[in-house]
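Fold this complex.
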Amino acid sequence: MDFGLALNVIVTGIIVVFLALILLILVMTAMGAVITRLTGSKKPEKQIEKSSPAPQAAAPAPVDASVQVESGIEEEVVAVIMAAVSAMQAESGEPGTFAVKSIRRSREARPAWSVAGLQQNTRPF
Amino acid sequence: MDFGLALNVIVTGIIVVFLALILLILVMTAMGAVITRLTGSKKPEKQIEKSSPAPQAAAPAPVDASVQVESGIEEEVVAVIMAAVSAMQAESGEPGTFAVKSIRRSREARPAWSVAGLQQNTRPF
Amino acid sequence: MDFGLALNVIVTGIIVVFLALILLILVMTAMGAVITRLTGSKKPEKQIEKSSPAPQAAAPAPVDASVQVESGIEEEVVAVIMAAVSAMQAESGEPGTFAVKSIRRSREARPAWSVAGLQQNTRPF
Amino acid sequence: MMFQEVISTITDMAVNSGFANLDWRSLIMILISFVLIYLAVKKEYEPLLLLPIAFGMLLANLPVANLNSMADGSLLYYLYKGVKLGIYPPLIFLGIGTMTDFGPLIANPKSFLLGAAAQIGIFITFFGALALGFTGPEAASIGIIGGADGPTAIYVTSQLADHLLGSIAVAAYSYMALVPIIQPPIMKALTTKKERSVVMQQLRPVSKTERIIFPIMVTLVVCMLVPDAAPLVGMLMLGNLMRESGVVDRLVKTAQNELMNIITIFLGVTVGATATAETFLTPKTLMIIALGLIAFCIGTACGVLFGKLMYVATKGKVNPLIGSAGVSAVPMAARVSQKVGQAENPGNFLLMHAMGPNVAGVIGSAVAAGVLLSIFGK
Amino acid sequence: MMFQEVISTITDMAVNSGFANLDWRSLIMILISFVLIYLAVKKEYEPLLLLPIAFGMLLANLPVANLNSMADGSLLYYLYKGVKLGIYPPLIFLGIGTMTDFGPLIANPKSFLLGAAAQIGIFITFFGALALGFTGPEAASIGIIGGADGPTAIYVTSQLADHLLGSIAVAAYSYMALVPIIQPPIMKALTTKKERSVVMQQLRPVSKTERIIFPIMVTLVVCMLVPDAAPLVGMLMLGNLMRESGVVDRLVKTAQNELMNIITIFLGVTVGATATAETFLTPKTLMIIALGLIAFCIGTACGVLFGKLMYVATKGKVNPLIGSAGVSAVPMAARVSQKVGQAENPGNFLLMHAMGPNVAGVIGSAVAAGVLLSIFGK
Amino acid sequence: MMFQEVISTITDMAVNSGFANLDWRSLIMILISFVLIYLAVKKEYEPLLLLPIAFGMLLANLPVANLNSMADGSLLYYLYKGVKLGIYPPLIFLGIGTMTDFGPLIANPKSFLLGAAAQIGIFITFFGALALGFTGPEAASIGIIGGADGPTAIYVTSQLADHLLGSIAVAAYSYMALVPIIQPPIMKALTTKKERSVVMQQLRPVSKTERIIFPIMVTLVVCMLVPDAAPLVGMLMLGNLMRESGVVDRLVKTAQNELMNIITIFLGVTVGATATAETFLTPKTLMIIALGLIAFCIGTACGVLFGKLMYVATKGKVNPLIGSAGVSAVPMAARVSQKVGQAENPGNFLLMHAMGPNVAGVIGSAVAAGVLLSIFGK
Ligand code: NA
Ligand code: NA
Ligand code: NA
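Structure:
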């Protein structure tokens, strides 16, 4: 076994993989900043409004067994929506003030929390 | 530049293209005549009857804003049907006596004014 | 013409074809026996129950013109179901005691009398 | 001077055009292609293959255009590679496997015997062809028409005698379309009224496990016994395993639709385009057409006669009419059994019983193909 | 010592990376590919082909990766075989045939004349290209842009001058997307208000028999006269025959969807990936873009002028605006005729009348392609 | 005399049949293929690939039939060309690109780090394989199993050491199916209850513009840095660009369905059919299976440990459980993160946060593949 070659490959490999993905982080972060500046970040906000259900009820946040889930939407997705709601509550500083009562598939083609994308990703390749 | 070659190609090209398509005109016209003689042109007439709505109302021919169009049928197709109706009126000698009130997709597989064909042709290749 | 070759091919061919298919009979029969022993033939029985309509009416068995056939199910399939019913009657020893009144496509994915399979086989390749 | 050049170019094009080079042989071929288009479109004789075949024949016989499957460098030459290298027919079999329900055969394995008996026509026709002066590989390709299985016939012929591909494909698909006309008289002539009236016992239900094991077993047994049948039988059974497993539905859907359709178009057009005047307009073609019919008739007869044997052996439990379905031509031949049986007794439903020999016939002709390939193949 | 090796490997990778080897020419090509992606995605310029073409161009110009269509052994090299050997464009034509309704042309065969007239732009542009110093085969490939038919342009160029494939494909598809901007001024300049207001007579209904015979007749006539057009016209007409026959719907569905889509992806990416800096960043590309525009304009003008001729000949029954549809660019050009006509008279509906010359233009440019291939082809 | 001939022919066929030539090694291979079919069908271990792979293995080991991917002239030999020439895996990546939502990664680009960390398993396993006596290219192919990405593993192995293709593909797909069993113990062992309970902040919404620019940027950066990754990454990103552009839906539909399914069938069967007894029944295969498991475990561990690092660096804002998703195995690994997290705190939803590292892992292993190909490739 050529120990030199081995170490060489390992170190180079790991460095290059990290280098490539760090470069991507920089590029994407820069891109995100540019786009936000250009568009004044108006559009994303609007999207948030659309995708967040208005707080209405007062049940505790953790999963409520009575939540109605439209057939065909997987458990997981409910989890995601729940998570999103929880996260927003965390931000707004008033936790545990409402629960998801009913989930329907949104009409929007490509919401930030891409439900369709997730389900498609489920196909095992 | 070989001026002779150029002219040669141009003249030959144009002559052959016209020759081919004129030949096609002759062949298709002959074929049309033969078929008409063989079938006594009965079938086409029946088709006309089917595809023409019976004149009922008395509004002026040009497009009426209140025309109801079934969703999925493009504006263009309405235009075509309108045109067909107008044309038939022009033939029958009594213009401007009715308007299209409502358009529904015909059940017929292959009407003379092939709506489906048109929509398929729309795909850009 | 090489008469020897000819006869050779014919005899060999026929023997090998029969040999192969007889071998398949043996293998499949053995397999059927093994599976029946392993599963105690419980499952198939259940399937029979499911796919056989309960005898209710008392009309004679041969085809009744008033049988309601769900659109999309071919005549043939009706014939098959009728045949199945007749056959069961023959087994149960009391012929001619009921008729098929109405046929609906079963929800089961793969019934013994595979209706879907039959229809697919219809495609001519 | 320049004008002269134009004249000469146009004269050149005229001289090299198809009109100037149309010989009567090509013209006849074009007319034959018209007849086949008519049969495919108006009579609906196996149009999925006959229409592309007929159009391929038309293209191949347009003078000068050189669009036949043997013309090195042409579009159809490249598409024909899939036939020449034996790729398309097994892929068609993959699709057929995904569409075939072997349940009736699993429920009644004795049907295999009828599927074997109906292949006798293949070998007897082989003998006839040999007697008429065809070479061994040619005779084998002609005999396989009697298998009543298009892709198998094309596979064998493409490997053994591809100059006959056009004639054999046309004969095979035409006779498959004519099964409802060819078979009934033979069936009636060979059976008694009593035999035709036999009502058969219901088939037992077949479990999913059996359905899954079946394609694996068939692959093992057939490919071990006749290795040359492996590409056809292996792909047929892979398709069936995919179907019955129920876990790869998206692959099944594509294999039985888009993949099969794409290959059907390529196969049909290029097989048709092998039929140039030189290879098709020979007395051989007429002989092939006659021999093909004989093959179908003998296959049908042998199936029915073997059915009679089973009728006797089972003391009247087997209706000999299901024997004719052993030629394959799925599912047409099984329907013919059903109809002839019902004509005798309106309450008799033989369809599912005939499906057993019918799908067994597909395996049977693949085995016969393997035998012939092992004897005459390179 | 070991540490040194790692350094040297990384240095090696750095030296061989694209960043170190990025020359300004590749950079410009990458920027051009961005512009094309922008046009395809935001402006929706024929995105089905322009997006794959643009991405192929991006891949081909990534330094070191060597992912261009000419790089022996690369992924795109293999996929490009389908272009190089003349396979993809006829198969695209097969799909187009299944989607084309030739009814309006059958109802009014005189439309063929307009479909012929609009091809004059091809030959005049050929002359212009020759005058600018292009070789004969190059000039022929450039001229064919005026046919306003992507697959035809790609077919001719791939056979005659595939170093220009990138530029010509980009020009062809860009101008096809720009038809609604390029044509109207020319149409208005060449016609009077009175001519534009002509209301045409309703087209006669077309029987199914005529629709079935049409593709067969076109194949016969065109392939006999111009054999080199046979792969394109033959496949176009096979597709149309399959469509009109109504008996092979499953083949039609696949030919017009999956088969066409798969080939469109392969064709687009590999055609785009022929456009390396060496072949694309030359003054020739600019000339091609200019000549392509000229070709479109002359084609439109000739169509309209011939329409005027027919207006006179028929004593005002033909609206000359339908002549511009003869360039093909189906169905965009026909829509332009409709819109310009309706702008003059809101009750005038030229669409179906313009579809005749429109689909005739497809046949016309295939014939022109055949002529050029027969003169300049190997 | 004649009878003797028949006897001799049948003896000949018997002697040359598979039954007479079945050695115990082929028999064991056939039994292994049965086990794999069982795992695919009953246990649903990645059946889309494992079922074709297993059946290919069965076909390849049928004695005499010679239906393995290396047997010149056989059906599977031709279909295997797409693997050998490196065509199928990039096309599968094209389809994966059309199905992948990179949104969570764009919203939180730091996830790229976890996608990088989880690839460390590849290189450590490479070292292990080298230590066990494998050659460099072999060790590289074995290491890449740790990428948890089937097409990438097949691509690298087909280019570097295709005699190991069968073992490596089986190991890769088996472990991908076993991700929900392999990962959780490692994840729990390396994290504290407090870490596992971290609730992460909602991801920001991602605009369409960002989604469109992302694939272009990834193509540029990755292919410039590691040109050998270009075929995989380029096609993945072309697919994703087609998806996100929203203007070529018909191409997207075909790329993610029919094209992908056709190639999956061909890829699976031919990869399985490389596994003949000679190449598969060696101690190497057992080592590969062991090393593959090690690769998965190290990858998972490195991902989680790097997650812990980010947990510290962000002062507890990152849940280290999402690190394990960096191995790719989309979307299984992300679901595992979700489940392990939820087991600790039922109100904690990590799925979308884990999707970031998950899809980053796909890019990460393609980069690693590029590095290994650039070092060991021709
Ligand atoms: Na048969
Ligand atoms: Na044109
Ligand atoms: Na990975």
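The CA atoms of residues 85 and 91 of chain C lie 10 Å apart.
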